[in-house]
């Protein structure tokens, strides 16, 4: 399967089926092996080492970028990757490489590779790979491990069942959709087949190939298949569509858009305008439905809008059509106020998702690709009766910002400047780190296009965006902007990597010398004594010391010029903003959720979304 054919089946050529997703860990006998040939035509089979063959396999699967940290145990693998058609980027930490691979995938839709050496190289990458699985990315980890005769003999950075658990790291399960240790070159054809199957399926796919050091240089004498797999999208049955039409025709309904609907924005807009339905979205779903559309009632969950609850209270829908979101705590806080009286119609590619977040609510589950489902629904749903008036819906609040001192910078003023200069003034991808950066950006920024805003809600690791912005900017060959806190910036930045490859990433640092979400959250919960302070850091000096450029902003009046300079720069750039640490972030819903789960024993007054 060539890179061109992979792109085709990933975007254009679909077979609509009702069956469950193929399991890449199973042995599929239906694949045509008649067209087996060496992967590299300019090499004889006997001249290919295992790692050279793996590099060629990855090229065939459409991989363009490999992110990682080298080491002695994977010298042969590193050499083969470096001499392939893939671009190899050497990072400063394996977790940063994994986060970059995740965001490179979401920026391009093409699978990405992470490479590590043995031992700590693997364990350092696990958090980023955990995020890849949770976010639904397509990422392949290549790692080194100890060769069989040396296992249990205290090898340097020994990586075997003697030192690490095989289950979960070296086997398929909760972390990896597919994982194996390559003990023989003869295994490669089947491994190639399983990788291709996994990558060709809708949704995420995270794999791990562990390659013993002694096996890496072994010669491959087996023909490797050139697979031709079509990308199957899962369609709902006609009965399911008929049932949905019947339920949605009973009364008004709302549409709840999640990240899994990111390829169906145009169809969802047609559906909303055809039916007059109100539309809300998860934090990861921002921009899939234009946030300036009159039918958009707001973002739900962490950093969300009170307008959603205003709608649910004043114009409650009979049903809610949920498209591609798990409805987990960051999206819903499991609030009963978001439950429609008639229940949910929940559409997801994963059959295990519907009904989990709200197990007590009547839910019609539909396993389908969201785009395929909406297209089918559009053909069957009747138009609104002619002459019926469009209902005026509440829209996300835009609080006026009162005049104030010019310093320190209020987060609301910073977000307003980012909106004008970056969101509206460029085509940059905007990414927000977990913490207050997440809540301010999610609450105040507005996007009218999909695939321009990225946050991680399920895992929410600090350092994800700080490092991921490098992968996104590199993969899209353009600007990517990370809105991050000083705590995350100190934890895991890849400025040095961006400098090495002259990647035009931008970091906007909310510098308040605190883990401020923790500080504000503890204060709101009434819990005293915890220390969330951080010694003040000058990130411009840090950036310049690594070879990047930067500017310090201490006055609100200097924001626009600084952001314009950052977005115009062709090199890595840090905007270090002295932020007002005492402005309460719109994150009180998270604290009420913690209280409800027993984090504190006394009720907590709810000060922000979801205002219940």
Strand tally: 20
3D shape: globular
Q: Could you name the CATH topology of the largest domain?
A: Rossmann fold
CATH homologous superfamily title of the largest domain: Thiamin diphosphate (ThDP)-binding fold, Pyr/PP domains
Tell me the β content: 15-25%
Task: From the alpha carbons, calculate the radius of gyration and give it in angstroms.
Answer: 25 Å
Instruction: Give the name of the CATH architecture of the largest domain.
Output: 3-Layer(aba) Sandwich
Q: How many structural domains are formed by the residues? A: 3
Q: Tally the helices.
A: 22
How is the main sheet built?
Answer: 6 strands, parallel
Structural class of the secondary elements?
Answer: alpha/beta
CATH class of the largest domain: Alpha Beta
* Cross-sheet strand order for the largest sheet: 3-2-4-5-7-6
Q: Percent of residues in helical segments?
A: 25-40%
Residue stretches low in confidence (pLDDT < 50, at least 5 long) are: 1-45, 589-594, 600-612
Gap between N and C termini? 53 Å
Q: Averaging pLDDT over every residue, what do you get?
A: 87
Features:
3 domains, TPP_enz, Rossmann fold, single chain, alpha/beta, six-stranded parallel β-sheet, Thiamin_PyroP_enz_cen_dom, disordered C terminus, about 600 residues
């Amino acid at each position: 399967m060539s890179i061109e054919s992979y792109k085709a089946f990933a975007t254009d050529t679909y077979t609509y089926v009702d069956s469950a997703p193929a399991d890449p860990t199973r042995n599929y006998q239906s694949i045509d092996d008649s067209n087996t040939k060496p992967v590299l035509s300019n090499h004889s089979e006997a001249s290919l080492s295992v790692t050279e063959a793996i590099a060629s396999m990855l090229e065939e699967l459409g991989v363009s970028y490999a992110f990682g940290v080298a080491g002695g145990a994977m010298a042969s693998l590193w050499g083969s990757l470096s001499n392939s058609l893939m671009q190899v980027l050497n990072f400063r930490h394996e977790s940063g490489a994994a986060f970059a691979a995740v965001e490179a995938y979401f920026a391009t839709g093409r699978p990405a590779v992470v490479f590590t050496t043995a031992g700590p190289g693997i364990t350092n990458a696990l958090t980023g790979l955990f995020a890849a699985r949770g976010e639904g990315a397509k990422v392949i980890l290549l790692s080194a491990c100890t060769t069989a005769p040396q296992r249990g003999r205290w090898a340097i950075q020994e990586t075997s069942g003697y030192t690490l658990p095989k289950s979960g790291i070296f086997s398929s399960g909760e972390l990896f959709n597919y994982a194996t240790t390559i003990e023989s070159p003869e295994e490669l054809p089947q491994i190639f087949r399983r990788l291709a199957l996994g990558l060709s399926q809708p949704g995420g796919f995270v794999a791990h190939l562990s390659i013993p050091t002694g096996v890496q240089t072994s010669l491959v004498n087996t023909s490797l298949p050139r697979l031709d797999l079509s990308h199957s999208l899962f369609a709902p049955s006609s009965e399911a569509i008929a049932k949905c039409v019947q339920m949605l025709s009973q009364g008004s309904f709302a549409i709840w858009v999640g990240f899994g609907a990111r390829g169906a924005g145009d169809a969802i807009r047609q559906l909303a305008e055809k039916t007059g339905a109100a539309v809300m979205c998860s934090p990861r779903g921002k921009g899939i439905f234009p946030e300036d559309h009159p039918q958009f009632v707001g973002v739900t969950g962490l950093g969300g809008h009170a307008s959603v609850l205003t709608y649910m209270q004043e114009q409650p829908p009979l049903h809610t059509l949920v498209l591609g979101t798990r409805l987990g705590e960051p999206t819903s806080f499991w609030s009963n106020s978001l439950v429609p009286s008639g229940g949910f119609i929940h559409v997801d590619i994963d059959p295990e998702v519907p009904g989990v977040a709200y197990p007590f609510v009547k839910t019609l589950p539909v396993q389908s690709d969201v785009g395929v489902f909406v297209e089918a629904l559009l053909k069957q749903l009747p138009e609104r009766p002619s002459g019926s008036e469009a209902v005026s819906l509440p829209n996300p609040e835009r609080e006026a910002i009162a005049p104030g001192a010019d310093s320190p910078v209020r987060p609301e003023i910073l977000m307003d400047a980012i909106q004008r200069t970056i969101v509206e003034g460029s085509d940059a991808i905007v990414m927000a780190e977990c913490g207050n950066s997440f809540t301010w950006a999610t609450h105040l920024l507005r996007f009218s296009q999909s695939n321009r805003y990225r946050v991680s809600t399920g895992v929410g690791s600090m350092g994800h965006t700080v490092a991921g912005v490098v992968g996104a900017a590199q993969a899209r060959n353009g600007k990517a902007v990370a809105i991050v806190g000083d705590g995350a910036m100190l934890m895991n930045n890849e400025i040095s990597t961006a400098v090495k490859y002259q990647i035009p990433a931008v970091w906007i640092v909310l510098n308040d010398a605190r883990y401020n979400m923790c500080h504000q959250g503890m204060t709101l919960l009434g819990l005293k004594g915890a220390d969330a302070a951080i010694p003040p850091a000058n990130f411009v000096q840090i950036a310049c010391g690594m070879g990047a450029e930067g500017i310090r902003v201490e006055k609100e009046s200097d924001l626009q010029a600084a952001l314009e300079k950052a977005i115009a720069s062709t090199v890595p750039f840090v905007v270090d903003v002295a932020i007002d640490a005492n402005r309460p972030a719109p994150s009180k819903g998270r604290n009420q959720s913690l209280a409800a789960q027993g984090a504190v024993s006394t009720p907590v007054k709810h000060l922000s979304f979801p205002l219940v």
